[in-house]
């Protein structure tokens, strides 16, 4: 905790591609980032999905907070600093011909700081994606907390209208305090920023970006995205 009773929280957002790659390398990347919260996209959704997600969490010295198949892919992991108040997995309306999407959400405390958390993976289809951004903002507003974060795979660059909609209502953490790399996709030739962490206005963003100095071999083996890490100062209630 900081002297003013606020909490310093490290938040990682990471698309893990259903753990189809090197899970040991993925766990090493996550551990090297030392996160308090991990906002996962493309968590396993099918056969023995809970066991697979639990193995990743255990290997990264974390626990499952919520999500996975019950949120159509997004999940949240956390360390033991987090005190969990409640969780809710939300399935979004299904557009025919598109993948089911959802949000993994939770309210947690770090000391006296109370924080709403949402992990998302928005649609590949632009109109559906824009509508989902509105649902995300509504969900954060309805969580009954003063401070909240959302992170995930936006499937759009910052210039797109969905990304702009989120950044106009929340802080785009990388834009506020860039630290480390910008581009998150692909892992081998990063040239696009389509993964992001957003925070409500009262949260102080100390730094955000793709962490430098992570082992290149692990990043390439873990998944096809790069992780985004934000260090945040969350005021006490």
TrEMBL record:
Give a yes or no for keyword Protein biosynthesis in this entry. no
Domain of life, per lineage: Bacteria
The record's section on Gene3D superfamilies has:
Endonuclease/exonuclease/phosphatase
Q: Which SUPFAM superfamilies does UniProt cross-reference here? A: DNase I-like
Q: Which InterPro entries match?
A: Endo/exonu/phosph_ase_sf (IPR036691), Endo/exonuclease/phosphatase (IPR005135), TDP2-like (IPR051547)
Needed cofactors, names only, are:
Mg(2+); Mn(2+)
Task: Give the protein name, as stated in the record.
Answer: Endonuclease/exonuclease/phosphatase family protein
GO-annotated molecular function: endonuclease activity
Q: What organism does this protein naturally occur in?
A: Streptomyces justiciae
> Pfam families in the record, alphabetically?
Exo_endo_phos
Per UniProt, the keywords (alphabetical) are: DNA damage, DNA repair, Endonuclease, Hydrolase, Magnesium, Metal-binding, Nuclease
Q: Which residues form the Endonuclease/exonuclease/phosphatase domain?
A: 12-225
């Amino acid at each position: 905790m900081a002297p003013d009773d606020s909490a310093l929280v490290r938040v990682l957002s990471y698309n893990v591609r259903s753990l189809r790659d090197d899970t040991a390398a993925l766990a090493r990347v996550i551990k090297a980032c030392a996160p308090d919260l991990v906002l996962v996209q493309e968590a396993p959704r099918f056969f023995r999905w809970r066991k697979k997600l639990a193995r990743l969490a255990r290997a990264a010295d974390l626990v499952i907070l919520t999500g996975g198949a019950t949120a159509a892919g997004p999940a949240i992991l956390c360390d033991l600093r987090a005190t969990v108040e409640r969780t809710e997995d939300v399935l979004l309306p299904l557009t025919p011909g598109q993948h089911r999407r959802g949000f993994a959400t939770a309210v947690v405390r770090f000391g006296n700081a109370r924080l709403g958390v949402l992990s998302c993976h928005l649609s590949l289809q632009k109109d559906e994606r824009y509508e989902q951004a509105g649902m995300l903002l509504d969900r954060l507003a309805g969580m009954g907390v003063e401070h909240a974060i959302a992170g995930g795979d936006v499937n759009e660059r910052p210039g797109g209208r969905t990304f702009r909609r989120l950044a106009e209502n929340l802080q785009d953490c990388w834009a506020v305090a860039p630290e480390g790399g910008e581009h998150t996709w692909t892992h081998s030739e990063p040239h696009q920023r389509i993964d992001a962490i957003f925070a409500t206005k009262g949260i102080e963003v100390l730094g955000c970006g793709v962490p430098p100095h992570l082992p290149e071999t692990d990043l390439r083996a873990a998944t096809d995205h790069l992780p985004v890490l934000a260090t945040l100062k969350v005021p006490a209630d």
